[in-house]
Every structure is written in structure tokens, then in C-alpha cells.
């Protein structure tokens, strides 16, 4: 049984900030956002978690292993080094979608994302160390079969990107509504999915669905672990097996 | 008449590097990728260009105003500071899609993205200063009407993200095939589109198409300029007018 | 009784790398070094430690609270994201100078700093959680009395810097040979000193010595704690008392 | 005849900011400072300039080749991405010390470094392109003879650092008062000196002086150029000749 700890990271009042007093230079916003994400990814990542950039102004992290104190340190550190601040909502559950819904609700209850008086909220609770298990997190790591040979070296860079995007858009929607899972594009042709307890046929079904809907061929490695890193690392190894053996779904035990 | 200068930025042999000798820690890859992007965005951006993260291993930039020497300095600087290197293909043209196709072809001719002997290619040519004009770049800046009130403060963070993604996926495909334009998600609910010479009815048609296809309501500001920054800054101002006046398409002259 | 845990961070074979195959662009080296330092400072700092940039190719950290596993994660993370790698030597003791000497010796025994086969060494041991106490670390935070009024707003920027440097050079030498302490310039007019069990008269003596030797007037706040952050934070508060009350030495209990 | 363009970079009202409302986490300050420096170093560096971290709250740059517009872009970009802002003073002259004094005076005239109403000043003027020559900048790059064999692999890391610091402190003072030059420690055992028109005997004298005063043996490569990068790159090559041939002073023509 999975027990995913999900953190919603929201930049406080970001939209208004980007245009006050005048619209800010786009390249500066892009730089600031991606560095902010990188810093959060490092902080969470070297404690065993995964952070996804998502919309950049709203990021989603799997934070099994991080305490509320860790979250507070992250919040303080970003506040000391950036021109913006973060609010954090944390929740846990067997369904990643439900956990994220709970985390979101905690922040929404504290105020609007564009309420200028809502700053540096820290809401929710984490899993006590005593209750953590080796099955808490299930991660599936998808990529596109032979993307370099079939796309990157054949199509122009944008058309390749369109193909990958269509595959991702279809997969994210399907995994969310059919399998209660959260899917995130992580660069290249890679999509990482945070799942509840799914089995091999679920993944086979998802791959078949995407193939049929948008004609993109995916393969997937799946791992379980106490943390996102443990589960995700097992998933990466399983995906290497797909690549080596030409299989489409591999679960690392 | 637009004359967009497009640069394809490709990390050399990146896929194999990420799994050699063992798969690398995902959080480190995410951090490295987003900082690499941030550095390129700064370099290009403080010379008036725009860089889009796209797939991260393949980034696309609008580089009007940058010389081949500037590109070489960027390439050298990244090579000195990162564990990976970049290849750059540059091309220009009235159609952003065609310019990107040419830039892509120049790199493909130099070797596969996963050819380990193809490193730090720099191919193509830029627009001479004497030929640059105030109409060279057309940028459209789209966002979702009242995204905070309609989505962020209502749905869970992932379902909001799905809605934005569907709008983006539909817009990117439509703008590419109907209008020869390159669309990029840039965070929040913002999509920046690099366009050829389009007119107000083209944008109205695109907004209507997305509304009908996936029920996402967009608004757009459009600007022209000698560089991506000039055009994009005008587009941001035009979008502010949409927000203030409740209009859906504004062109800044 | 203090028990300082000191880590020597050494970039492997850095000197030769900076000139191979040709000397690398100085601005790139400066950027890379300072970002590498910043990353280590964040990693160590958000676990309660302090890192000092020192020579940049050799950095010194106070790491009470970090395990050997933490050190290994840092080493792996830097290796994944930079073109250089780190070796780490760790040691503990009542004298910070002796602890650093032991940490240094462990790395020297593993090979020369410019031995190209010595890469990513991790040597030494940390303090078990059970043996950590609230007196393990003593930090003194010095600055120059009224530096803005007396120097920054009066002299040219370099002459101010010379004055601060002379004060620092004298303090570092005196604290090392008279008080077994490690002193680090941390920007502005601030020097942070890692001390064994010193008392108020020791600090008064040091301030008088620097005043007499190079005519620079210092004040100091001193704190104790389980970690560098705890001790250093108390020291900062004590220094605020100096600034408010015009005293020269304050110890926070 | 040299004509050095010097920029003083001052963080506005930094000291008070670091302790308001409470002292900020030291590791965050260190991280923020060093990244701010890194960003400035990149911006200036990829336009041919050199930036020195100096005190971090006051940095000194050699900016031949940068226009006032470039300075304004830097200032805007930092203001968009950091919690602090910069004031910049620019001046030029045959003596680097005098140029820095003029740049400093321009900022001092605009207000105190701790005046909270003085923000984002940009004062001074740059050298017109038509007046730039290949002799404008003279850079000397010093290091310690066989530092790894004599120090790093022999002494503990702090005692090595003390030796290097004493050499640096003596050199900086001597070069400033005897030779109107600005000396900056840049990591490892490297000191970069921005000089007026000096000749070989001047450098021989300086090396002999430091040897006699503090028993540290230095070698130096000297270069001239239109920009700091050109001059500094020639100096690095000249220093490689010292290392290869065992000479102590080399000038690259």
C-alpha cells in the first residue's frame, strides 16, 4: 500500500509581482523561476524527494522523508535569497491525486494565490518516521521508444517536441483519471509518474491507450521505495532493462 | 515582413550521459538542466533574445541581435562550467518554423544527437546588423482568462495544470500547422508564440479554435520589434491592456 | 568543552584542470568556483553547518550534525552537476586547528591534491548523535566598528578593502597561533571565527592586539551551540548587542 | 598608455538588510552573495571584462568594452532576480587606483552605502569605442611557486591559507602604494592585479619585496589588451611560460 507525501509549493502572489510596477524582463523571469526550481529540487532531492517544475509558479514535490522542520528551513532559505516567497501545503495518502488535492485545499483555505497578505504559509503534516515503509512510494519512469532515431534525428526540433508533448498530454490525462496518478514531464522524452499501488497490466493498458490515441510508443520502468529517490532509482534501472531487452514494461522488485 | 533568427541548442550526447556508468540521481539531473537553461536564458536574454526550455536537452532560442561570436562565447562558457557541452545550429527566415527546420538540419548534418564524436558544433549564420529591421520579430504572449479565480483557487494544483496543458497542447499544434508559429509554455498560464507576419484575425481564429477544441479561454497581446525582447515587451504591454479592458486580442503598434 | 567537526573540501586536481588544454576563461572559473561554493554552503547550511570559501579550491566547513552519508550525497551531487569532483576529509576534536589538521592529513595520505588518480576520496569520521552536546561549537562573529561611516563612505573602495584585509590578516594569524582558532572573512567587514573553549578575556586580548598591530577597531559577538548555525546565530545576536550598546565583546549564553 | 575602465558595484543598504528584522541565516547570506557575484562575473565576463568579489557587498570590475546601457541592463536584471539591488559607479583613467577613486566618489556623492533611499544609482561614463586601444588594460597574474608541493600537500589547509593570505596582503598593499595597482585574490594561490603601464623591473621589484617581507615566492605573467579578458588571457599564457621554464616574470607582447 502506497503512502505518498505530497507538497504543493506555491510562489506567493507571483502573477501580480511579474507585472509590478511594469512587466519585468521575460528572460529574467525565466531565469529566476528555473533557478528557484533548481534550488528546491536540490533541497528536496538530497533528502530523497523529487520536485517537479509543473507550472513553475506552482510546483509539486514528493517529500516522503522530509519533516515539517525541513519544509520550514526551505521556506526560510528561499525567502532569504529570492525576491519572492513560498507557501507550502503538505498532505499524505494512498492516492497521490487525493494527497495533492488535500495539500492544495490547505493552501486555498489559507487564502488566494494572489492574496498579497497570504505569505509564507506552511500547512499540513508529514508521515512520522515510525510509520514509513518500503512501499510508500511507487514511481513509473516512461520514455519514448527510440526517440533519437525516430524523432530527434529525423524531424525538426519543434515537430519532435510536438510529438512528445502529445504523448505526454495524453498520458497525464489518462493516468490521472484512470489510475489516480500524477505525471510530470522532466525533460528529453522522459515522464515521471507518481502512482498509487498499480500493477503491470495497468501500465500495459496505459501504454496501449497512448499508442492508440496519439500514436506515440512508450516504454516504462516501475520501482517502489521508502522515498521518491529509492522508488525512482529502481524505476530507472527497470527502464534500462526495457532499453536493453526491448520490453515495454519492467517492474523492479 | 518578419525575419526571425532561430538557434537550436542541443546538449551533446545527453541521453547516454545521464545513465553512464549508472543512472544519475534524478534531482541532480533536474537541477543541472534547469540551471543550464537559466544560464543560456541570461546570456541570450541580456542581448535581447529569448530562450525556451522546450525539452531541456533541446532548447530553442530567438537570437536576433546575437552574432556567431556571441554563440561561440556561450558555447565556450558552458563547456567551462558544466559537465556537458552544447551544439548550436542557427538559421533565419520569414517563417519561424522553416528557420528552426534549417537550424535543425544543420545540426543533423553534423551528426546524431547521440553521436559521441559530435561535440560543440556551431553551424549556421546570423543576420548582418545592416539588414536588421524593427519588424524582424513578432511575438504573441497568451494567457488563460482569470486563471487564478477559475482554476488555481478552485481545482487541485494538478487538475489546474491539466487544463493549462490541454490548452497549450492544442494551441502549439494549431499555431504550428495553421500559422507556421512556434509556441512555448513559459510557466504559470503563459504561452509565448514566435510568429511570422500574422494579423488580428489570425489570433482571433486561434483563440476561437482552442476554446472550441478544449474549452480553455485565452487572451493574447502581440508585439513587433527588432529583437525578441522588444517584440515580447510590447506583447506584454498589450496583454496588460487585455487584462485591464477585458479584450481578447491586442496588438501593440 | 567544544567538539568541532571539521570537513576539508578539496577540488580534485583543480590547478591542472584550469589550464588544460589551454587556460580557461577567467570569468568562467570565477563563476564556476563561486557557484560550487554556494551549492556546498546551501547543502551544509541547511543541515546546520557553515562552509567557508577560503581558497575556493580548498574550502573548510564546520559540519557538526552531518553524517558520512550526508557527505557522500554532497560528493555525488556535485560530481553529477559540475565539471570537477570533490574529495572530503572529516575530523573532530576540541581544537578546531587540530581537527582541520587531522582532516587535511587524511586527504594528504590518500594522495596529492594534483594527483589525477585521486578522485572523490571520502575519509574520516563524524560525531555520533549520542555524543553531540550544546557546547560542541563555539563561534565568534567579528566586524569593524562603524565601517560604513569610517571607511566605506570615506575612502575609495580599494583602500577600505585594504584596511579590512589588514585587520583580517592580523586577526586570522593571531587567533590561529594564540588561540587555536580558524578565522574566515565572509564578506563586508565580517570575520567568523571557529574557536575552542575561549573566554571573554581571550576576545578582549585579540581585539586589543589587532588594534595595536594594525589600528583596526573590532567588536565581537560570541555564541555556543550544538551546530555551527546554532552557535553562529547566537553570535550574531550578541554582535547586535555590541552595535546597540557600543560594547566590544558580548557572549550569548 | 593604459586606460582602465573601472566599475564599483555596491549592494544597496546591504548591512542593515542582513539583520532585518532579525539576523538572517549565515549560510543563506553566503550563498546569495556568491551567486550574485557569479552572475555579475558572467555578465561582465562574457563581454570581455573581469569582476572581483572583493568584499562581496562592494565588488570591483574592469569593464572596458561595456557601455552604460550594458550597466543598466545588469542592474535591471539583478533587481529582477535578487532580494537586493545594486548601485554602479563607473570611471576611467591611466591609473586604476585613480579610476576606482573616481568611481567610488560618484557613488558616495549620490548617498551613503547605508542610505535606504539611495537605490540603483548608475553614475559615470565609459570609454567611447573610437577611443579604445590594444594597450588599454594591463593585467598581471601572480601565483605562488610550487604551492602544491611546498604548501597544500605539506601543511594543514588553514596554515597553507595563512601563508597565501600573508603573501596576498603584502602584495596588495605594495602594488597599491608603490605601483598604483589593484590586486585581487581569485582563488587557489592566484592573485590578479590591474596595473597601469608597468615594466618588467617593477614586477621583479614587487616579487622581491614580498619574498623579503613575508617569505612567499611569487611568479607573474603579464599581458596587455583592449579588454581585461584579452590582457588577462595573455597574462595566463605568460604565467604558463614561467611554470614551464622556471622563470619568475614573463611579459606577453
Automatic annotation (TrEMBL), chains A, B, C, D:
GTP-binding listed as a keyword: yes
EC number: 3.5.4.29
Gene Ontology molecular function, alphabetical: GTP binding; GTP cyclohydrolase IIa activity
Family matches, as Pfam families: GCH_III
Stored NCBIfam families: PRK02240.1
Family: Belongs to the archaeal-type GTP cyclohydrolase family.
Protein name, as recorded: GTP cyclohydrolase III
Organism, as annotated: Natrarchaeobaculum aegyptiacum
Taxonomy of the source species: Archaea, Methanobacteriati, Methanobacteriota, Stenosarchaea group, Halobacteria
